[in-house]
Input
Amino acid sequence: MKQKDDGVADCLVSVERVEINDEQCVIWALQDVTERRRGEAQLAEAIEIVMADT
Output
């Protein structure tokens, strides 16, 4: 997803089709997981460094 500052955000999207008052609708949720992904990458890098030292 493109951000206002032209950056890019990693997002988790969830979608569910539902019926409300006899009308088909879609409920969706969008969660920004950019920081979580960045943290996971840093953790993986730290593990690689530690494993290389052993």
User: Anything to note?
Assistant: Residues 11 and 17 are 20 Å apart (CA to CA). The chain is about 35% helix and 35% strand.
